[in-house]
């Protein structure tokens, strides 16, 4: 099929419905069409290079077109691309499950595969609910609700949306959702009335404990994004918060589900975020970084305790009736194995810790700019909250889309980043070099400066 760049642009607007995108505005602009990637860079169809400052939506680990990952994929495809896990097994899915059991914290050891983060969450929720039913459906018949945090994001399928707390995305679907109970999120920057970080932490934990005291017999599980609530705008949790959440879940017989979809595979400076607080969830969800950004794959891993509740004779109906057609796909699993091997061989986690320190120094320079209200960082996961007024923390109105302008200016300067509401997010490719991280920050600095010059209202 032959085509011109112009035709590609036209067909993109004519045939492709983009995710999370108001297509009416989208078709009025020139689309960014990516053709190639190499290392930390993406290249569009005109050959223009961009630093991949969003890791191609938080997935890329070793850089684009990594020779070793490429050959792992070639090697596997010469054998087979796909066969099913329903009633049969395959080699890469076995080896990967064993590897995941080894690298995840504590006694997490039973891997259920799927293909998107949302599916990994759906699976976790269904497992958590059925777990209590399988143990004692009389005693636990009321255990059917879930707790999650304000502003939580766990994906876009209906179950994942049900435990989500992002009003903007989820409001319209309210009538379709099952019930969740929200607890406050420790969003220190915007909880002045509560106090400092420690006081915010105590306040949120107290609310959780009060809830558990009265409601725990109705609650199957609590789901949380450990350390950082990503899609909410990189809300970083106070130290010790997650550990206390774990303690409360244990004390009140509620399963703890850690959604490591965004934070897993090194992003926050440890392989998994919950390691930083020695937390071992009952169920853990993984996706984004699992294949290094190569293939759609997700996994839900559980402890033996959870898994064992599903064992029984067929007539006991303890089976977990769930599965997706591409569950355990060989191409995806083989690339995930290689991704993890390379993380180990290249000592990437240690490298991330070193780079995160340097990154933090570069980032602090952004406070020179009057509209930078808050910089939040864990590892190579960063949110910069933009405010109109530093004192009042007032944000710009929808009629003053300065954050989007910053993003677009940065793009023209060769950096792709994204915004989440008033927050500029920086999620570099994990293998990005220190100079490239510095360059990212420089471009963001210049872009903010340039955007400010268009606004007279900045105080
Ligand atoms: C991205 C994300 C999901 C959803 O993953 P998809 O692959 O987009 O379905 C779930 N949870 C968290 C924390 C995420 O960041």
Automatic annotation (TrEMBL):
Chemical reaction(s) catalysed: (8S)-8-amino-7-oxononanoate + S-adenosyl-L-methionine = S-adenosyl-4-methylsulfanyl-2-oxobutanoate + (7R,8S)-7,8-diammoniononanoate
Binding site for pyridoxal 5'-phosphate: 117-118, 259, 324-325
Modified residues (N6-(pyridoxal phosphate)lysine): 288
Functional pathway: Cofactor biosynthesis; biotin biosynthesis; 7,8-diaminononanoate from 8-amino-7-oxononanoate (SAM route): step 1/1
HAMAP family referenced in this protein's UniProt entry, alphabetically: BioA
Quaternary context: Homodimer.
Protein name: Adenosylmethionine-8-amino-7-oxononanoate aminotransferase
Organism of this sequence: Peribacillus asahii
């Amino acid at each position: 099929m032959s085509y011109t760049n112009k035709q590609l642009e036209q067909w993109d607007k004519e045939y492709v419905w983009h995710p999370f995108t108001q297509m009416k505005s989208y078709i009025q602009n020139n689309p960014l069409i990516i053709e190639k990637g190499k290392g930390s860079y993406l290249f569009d169809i005109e050959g223009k290079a961009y630093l991949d400052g969003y890791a191609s939506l938080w997935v890329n680990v070793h850089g684009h077109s990594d020779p070793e990952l490429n050959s792992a994929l070639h090697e596997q495809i010469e054998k087979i691309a796909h066969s099913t896990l329903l009633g049969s097994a395959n080699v890469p899915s076995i080896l990967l499950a064993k590897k995941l059991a080894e690298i995840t914290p504590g006694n997490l050891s039973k891997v259920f595969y799927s293909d998107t983060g949302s599916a990994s969450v759906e699976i976790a929720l269904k497992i958590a609910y059925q777990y209590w039913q399988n143990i004692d459906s009389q005693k636990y018949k009321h255990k059917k609700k879930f707790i999650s945090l304000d502003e939580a994001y766990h994906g876009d399928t209906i179950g994942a949306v049900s435990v989500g707390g992002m009003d903007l995305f989820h409001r319209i679907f309210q009538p379709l959702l099952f019930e969740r109970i929200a607890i406050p999120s420790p969003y220190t920057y915007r909880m002045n009335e509560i106090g400092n970080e420690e006081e915010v932490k105590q306040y949120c934990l107290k609310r959780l404990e009060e809830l558990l005291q009265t409601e725990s017999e109705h609650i199957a599980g609590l789901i949380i994004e450990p350390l950082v609530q990503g899609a909410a705008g990189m809300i970083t949790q106070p130290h010790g918060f997650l550990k206390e959440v774990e303690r409360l879940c244990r004390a009140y017989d509620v399963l703890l589900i850690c959604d490591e979809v965004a934070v897993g595979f090194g992003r926050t400076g440890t392989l998994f975020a919950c390691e930083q607080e020695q937390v071992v969830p009952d169920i853990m969800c993984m996706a984004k970084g699992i294949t290094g950004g190569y293939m759609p794959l997700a996994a839900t891993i559980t402890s033996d305790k959870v898994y064992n509740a599903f064992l029984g004779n067929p007539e006991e109906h303890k089976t977990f009736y769930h599965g997706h057609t591409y569950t355990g796909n060989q191409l995806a699993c083989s690339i995930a194995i290689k991704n993890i091997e390379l993380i180990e061989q290249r000592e990437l986690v240690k490298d991330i810790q070193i780079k995160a320190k340097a990154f933090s120094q570069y980032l602090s320079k952004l406070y020179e700019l009057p509209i930078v209200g808050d910089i939040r960082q864990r590892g190579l996961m960063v949110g910069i909250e933009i405010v109109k007024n530093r004192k009042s923390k007032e944000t710009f109105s929808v009629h003053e889309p300065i954050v989007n302008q910053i993003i677009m200016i940065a793009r023209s300067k060769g950096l792709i980043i994204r915004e989440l509401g008033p927050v500029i997010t920086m999620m570099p490719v994990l293998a990005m070099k220190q100079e490239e991280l510095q360059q990212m920050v420089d471009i963001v600095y210049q872009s903010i400066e340039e955007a400010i010059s268009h606004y007279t209202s900045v105080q």
